[in-house]
Specification:
By secondary structure, the chain is of the alpha/beta class. The protein is 45% helix and 17% strand. It folds into 2 domains: 190 residues, Glycogen Phosphorylase B (Rossmann fold, 3-Layer(aba) Sandwich); 180 residues, Rossmann fold (3-Layer(aba) Sandwich), CATH 3.40.50. It has a 7-stranded parallel beta sheet with strand order 3-2-1-4-5-6-7, sandwiched between helices. Helix 9 packs across helix 14 and helix 12 crosses helix 15. It binds ligand GMT. Ligand GMT binds next to helix 1 and helix 4.
Length: 375
């Protein structure tokens, strides 16, 4: 099959899922065509079965805002005609599925089928709530797709309710290649020596530092924890809250224990020396970073929101507490890190869950089957 993958190329779960899906499909003999405004970071290495089609957006004095949706539709129609695409897989309803719909209309008979995967932020956060017209266009994009998937049961339910949908929405969970993750044993890792030379515990948080991630909660949890357990905190990612978080780290006099690592393309090598992942988000339709951590045998302390409880089993592969309960998050983290036996049990359960429920070998065939069903 020839499948166009439409995604955001930046560091973020949806781009990672689209890129890894493209690579997985290529491995299974298909050809994936990435259609985006730049090359997604995990696809920079040449792969003959993953072809990149960059969207150019016309700039013209009349255009106050460059029309990306139209540029994308034009590119999809062009790739569709030249490569006989079977499927356009849009990650996000707005604007990607809208462009896919336009391309399908332009191509007419024999046009590719449209699969739209909902990742959450378009449904659960600002877009839909902020503007009635976005609500309409999102509902439209969902309804005209040939198939729609959501990355968790939570997101499916939320979408069906929000848009009073009568159409079918499939749940296909996000996935991880568990063969890349190391097991739960953390001792002897060279990263440990570097970040924690005195044998301190290592905590990590990775996100796009948007307010929804509540990164300041990470710092406050760490502050409480390091009063009882010697520890270091690795903060991975870039985003609007970064300066504010830096300031908080300074105010709490934690600078020598907190490392800001910026954006990282792959987390596995970092996670191999990490003891605990903190994810205190206000909303998370899935929480891909939690799964990446679990795949490396890293338990997660996070919030019981959205689809996160479908990924992290509370009390087995981590702990989930209500949003904003910093003290509870710190207590759960302290409990996990102060007993080697407990930590090893959680680490093994986390890795086992990632392998049994979310391995790419289990999930990618579900997308393949969906494409085949449509064709
Ligand atoms: O969380 C973000 O801000 C990024 C966003 C994205 O577009 O990558 O993440 C969403 O999609 C991910 C992949 O399906 C999910 O793992 C995240 O939970 C979801 N983010 C939210 O729901 C806030």
């Amino acid at each position: 099959m020839h499948i166009a993958m439409v995604c955001y190329p930046s560091h973020g779960g949806s781009g990672v899922v689209a890129s890894e899906l493209a690579l997985g499909l290529a491995e299974r003999g298909h050809v994936a065509h990435i259609v985006s405004y730049s090359v997604p970071f995990r696809l920079r290495e040449f792969n003959p079965r993953v072809r990149i089609h960059e969207v150019e957006v016309a700039t013209y004095p009349l255009f106050k805002y460059p029309p990306y949706t139209l540029g994308l539709a034009t590119k999809l129609a062009e790739v569709g005609a030249e490569q006989s695409l079977d499927v356009i897989h849009a990650h996000y309803a707005v604007p990607h599925a809208v462009s896919a719909y336009l391309a399908r209309e332009i191509l007419g008979e024999g046009a590719p089928k449209i699969v739209t995967t909902l990742h959450g932020t378009d449904i659960t956060l600002a877009l839909v709530g902020a503007d009635e017209s976005f609500h309409r266009v999102t509902k439209f994009a969902i309804e005209v797709s040939d198939a729609v998937t959501a990355v968790s049961q939570f997101l499916k339910k939320r979408t069906v309710e929000e848009f009073s949908l009568e159409r079918e929405v499939d749940v296909i969970y996000n996935f991880v290649d568990t063969s890349r993750g190391s097991g739960p044993s953390k001792s002897g890792d060279p990263g440990r020596e570097h970040w924690a030379p005195r044998g301190e515990k290592i905590l990590m948080h990775a996100s796009n530092f948007r307010p929804v991630k509540r990164v300041s909660d990470v710092v406050r949890v760490f502050d409480l924890l390091q009063r009882e357990i010697p520890a270091k905190l690795l903060l991975v990612g870039e985003g609007p809250e970064r300066l504010f978080v830096r300031q908080l780290v300074k105010e709490l006099r934690l600078s020598e224990h907190v490392h800001f690592l910026g954006e990282q393309d792959y987390l596995q090598s970092l996670l191999s020396c990490v003891d605990l992942l903190l994810l205190p988000s206000e909303q998370e339709s899935f929480g891909l970073v939690a799964l990446e951590a679990m795949s490396c045998g890293v338990p997660v302390v996070g919030t019981a929101v959205g689809g996160l409880p479908e990924v992290v089993t509370d009390g087995e592969s981590g702990f989930l507490v209500p949003v904003g309960e910093v003290r509870a998050m710190a207590d759960a983290s302290i409990a996990l890190l102060s007993s080697d036996e407990k930590h090893a049990r959680f680490a093994a359960a986390a890795r086992a869950r990632a392998k049994s429920e979310f391995d790419s070998k289990k999930i990618i065939p579900q997308y393949e089957a969906l494409y085949e069903r449509l064709l």
